Amino acid sequence: MSATSYTIVNLPDQRTATIPKRNYLNNEDGLLSWLFTGDHKRIAILYLISITFFFFIGGAFAGLIRLELLTPQPDLVASDTYNKFFSMHGIVMIFLFLVPSVPATLGNFLIPIMIGAKDLAFPKVNLLSWYLYWIGGLFTMAALVLGGVDTGWTFTTPLSTHYLNTHVVTAATGVFIIGFSSIFTGLNFIVTLHRMRAPGMTWFRLPLFCWSNYAASILMVLGTPVLAITLVLVALERLVGIGVFDPTKGGDPLLFQHLFWFYSHPAVYIMILPGMGVISEVISTFSRKRVFGYTAVAFSSVAIALFGFFVWAHHMFIMGVSNYSALVFSLLTMLVAVPSAIKIFNWAFTLQKGSITFETPMLYAFGFLGLFTIGGMTGVFLGALGMDIHLTETYFIVAHFHFVMVGGMLMAFLAGIHFWWPKMTGRMYPESLSKLAAVTTFIGFNLTFLPQFILGYLGMPRRYHAYPPEFQVLNVLSTAGATVLGVGYMLPLLYLGWSLKYGAIAGNNPWQATGLEWQIQSPPLTENFIETPVVDHEAYDYEWLEHKTAQEVTTVG
Amino acid sequence: MHISPVLWQFLVKWLNASALFPREASTIAPYADALYFFLLLITVVGLTLVGILIFGFSIRYRKEKHPVAVQVEGSTLLEATWTIIPLALFLIVFVWGALLYFRIYNPPTNAMNIYVVGKQWMWKAEHAGGQHEINALHVPTGIPVQLTMISQDVFHSFSIPDFRVKREVIPGRYSTVWFQATTPGTYHIFCTQYCGTNHSAMIGEVTVLTPDDYAKWTQESTSGMSLAQNGERLFASMGCNACHSGSAAARGPNLAGVYGSKLQLTNGSQVLVNDAYLRDAILNPSQHITAGYAPIMPTYQGQISEDGLIDLVEYIKAMQTNYRVQQTLTTSTSNQAAPTTPGVVKP
Ligand code: HEM
Ligand SMILES: [Cu+2]
């Protein structure tokens, strides 16, 4: 174990009082320059605005769901309306928010810069994938406006194909198209990371954010086509009755389950891995330490991605898969839980002997660690065969996946947005408000979803519009929590918007972080780097940074 | 329970009295709860550990206290530790969970069978004696009860939280679940798989009676015709007995004693005759031709309801057979070995 110490030089205030004259935001003017841009940073901003829009649509449905569940009686809306609410909530949140969230916004913005490239490998494909995202999004919205869809986000047959008169095909088409958008993003990242790294940027000098997005990209490219095929089959079955899933025609409804989960299990890793990358960056920066066991963290991302393909049937333990395949899938599920556990401890030990500060991204990252630990451990409950029988399809599941995806991914997303906001916009956000938002979100989150674990063990099924009265107290708590949580999500929208105009000028490297993105101006130039950088140090090398800034001080002075 | 009977009893009493815990009303429930508490324990310990690390380091190494970070590479020893300990714990959970799974899904051979048909949006139970109930199920204490379930339309899922059992109810195939109720009372039956508009109204009640009360209930609610008797009528009215007459000259195989046997097919394979096979053979006869017979049986797809199929299956089962097949396998592609009935397997 080699250990050396260093001191942070007290930098002279380098903040130029203004945003750099030329940057990617003002390089060209007019709406068209945005709509036809090939700049990965501008596309990232387009995505950021789009997913925020859809997040609040999905959130509005969450609010309606929770409002209905305030009382046991079905009093706010009729059953089919309620079913449309949770279907829309699920479809929008999964396909239009969670899957693209970190990769399409932060990943698009940062990956080329982090590896010292001027853009992604295929800028036009990148823009195309944003358009596909919107076309898919419009189909989904059309399904909503035309009267809704009530399949749930899982499109289960034969319900979706034979028993519903809603806009199933429209919504499925939307999801199908959005799928291509994510395949293109994944391909673009993979090629970029392989081909465009600056001289000296070896694989083991990559920031962990790149590793985790790389792992997620593999999943997007290999998994999403299976979803696409499944949706085509659903549409064909519905429109012309081909019967692959229909038992009365010799088809097999369980085949649908296998195909669907073969995508949708890996999809949860698509949703969480990029968030893990954000957490690595944030924790390292604010404890001023190299990430503990960098290699283990990097490889565990790839391990999670690959093994993620072999556990899909754990969604089917109660569906009459044979007892022996249930054994195998349960064992594999336990094995994929291990890399996540490893990461938690690596992050915790990154703090050890650090010099820790508690800026807003760090608070979100701490929130992530706590919530993701709970989400991960409750996953072990569900991987344990006999326990899964009682817990699956209840509110325990709802709580578990919200802990992982909302407590995990959304916390990570917010950590990342706050962390790189100064780089993206050149301005700081108001410090105390943002801390308040982080704390509010954390409290609201726990109040919303902890009661749902208990509800689940009591047996309250998910997707219930009305429920027996003995479950009410816990549901009221959950709805109260959702209100707090809602406030927690609104706050950043307001103060980040405010900061665009009134925020303090950030400077190039407000956090004194090591990544290449912090060595260029904020907001960056369209071409990122004027000359291709040569990388001669590892990621998170704070000694190198100290050395470099000390030199700059002398040259400036 | 083998952990610590006294402590366990105490805990269970206390929990059952609290509104935050489901009642333990089947023989399985204590086993499920034991695993649940173990999992809760490791979750709480794990979470506390992570909490201590984060808060401990945050206080000890905050910038004011520790202005200069000390760079550390990593540590193979530490990493091995936090790989191996979770792995070991998860493997314990895996084995424990697997044992529980087999306990929950393998019915004892003496279980009494009740059929359940799920449809949008009700549960229909059919007892062998011919009693029908909708969104209700009466069962005795102390006797293992197996449910053989099928859906008439979409996926449903049959769940009794107070028994800690649940099983998906699938269109086109039989699935089974069993339990042994311990405490008289009424408990919720939920449909837990989203099945369309009135999914949340697909709720029933299971009434657990003492064996005496159950006998009384059976007497009072009899419809006069057992399932097998209904099946016999159907067998005649659908014209099945024209071929399956049991005589040597018949064009179809004799069905007496066929249930539970292994049947030789024309294509050379052998199948175990269980509920699923019988249902399948009625609906898709051309796919399983018994060796020695011509493929002349018509399909009854679309002509017999699931209830009718159950009646027919019960009737065929009841045509003298001594074997009760282990009905744990839920698919129609079972190849589980079972004793053969002399005279049925053709060479
Ligand atoms: C205030 C925040 C939120 C609340 C109160 C909330 C509430 C709920 C509830 C009650 C359900 C279950 C519906 C049911 O089973 O009947 C649900 C499902 C779901 N939620 Fe959320 N949610 C919130 C935020 C989110 C976010 C931020 C995401 C993703 C980013 C998300 C993703 C999902 C998904 C994918 C489902 C499954 C939908 C389905 O069952 O088809 N939720 N949510
Ligand atoms: Cu149902």
Automatic annotation (TrEMBL), chain A:
It is found in: Membrane. Pfam families: COX1 (PF00115). SUPFAM superfamilies: Cytochrome c oxidase subunit I-like. The chain crosses the membrane at residues 44-65, 85-111, 131-149, 169-193, 214-236, 256-279, 291-312, 324-342, 363-385, 397-421, 433-454, 474-496. One of its GO terms (cellular component) is membrane. It comes from Tunturiibacter psychrotolerans. Keywords: Electron transport, Heme, Iron, Membrane, Metal-binding, Respiratory chain, Transmembrane, Transmembrane helix, Transport. The keyword Transport applies. This is Cbb3-type cytochrome c oxidase subunit I. One of its GO terms (biological process) is respiratory electron transport chain. The keyword Iron applies. Belongs to the heme-copper respiratory oxidase family. It is a multi-pass membrane protein. PROSITE patterns: COX1, COX1_CUB. GO terms for molecular function: cytochrome-c oxidase activity; heme binding. Residues 34-536 form the Cytochrome oxidase subunit I profile domain.
From TrEMBL, chain B:
Residues 135-202 form the Cytochrome oxidase subunit II copper A binding domain. Residues 21-92 form the Cytochrome oxidase subunit II transmembrane region profile domain. Its cofactor is Cu cation. The chain crosses the membrane at residues 34-59, 80-102. Pfam families: COX2 (PF00116), COX2_TM (PF02790), Cytochrome_CBB3 (PF13442). Gene3D superfamilies: 1.10.287.90, Cupredoxins - blue copper proteins, Cytochrome c-like domain. It catalyses: 4 Fe(II)-[cytochrome c] + O2 + 8 H(+)(in) = 4 Fe(III)-[cytochrome c] + 2 H2O + 4 H(+)(out). Keywords: Copper, Electron transport, Heme, Iron, Membrane, Metal-binding, Respiratory chain, Translocase, Transmembrane, Transmembrane helix, Transport. It is a multi-pass membrane protein. It is found in: Cell membrane; Membrane. One of its GO terms (molecular function) is cytochrome-c oxidase activity. One of its GO terms (cellular component) is plasma membrane. Its EC number is 7.1.1.9. Residues 228-316 form the Cytochrome c domain. Binds a copper A center. GO terms for biological process: ATP synthesis coupled electron transport. Subunits I and II form the functional core of the enzyme complex. Electrons originating in cytochrome c are transferred via heme a and Cu(A) to the binuclear center formed by heme a3 and Cu(B). Belongs to the cytochrome c oxidase subunit 2 family. This is Cytochrome c oxidase subunit 2. It comes from Tunturiibacter psychrotolerans. The gene is coxB.
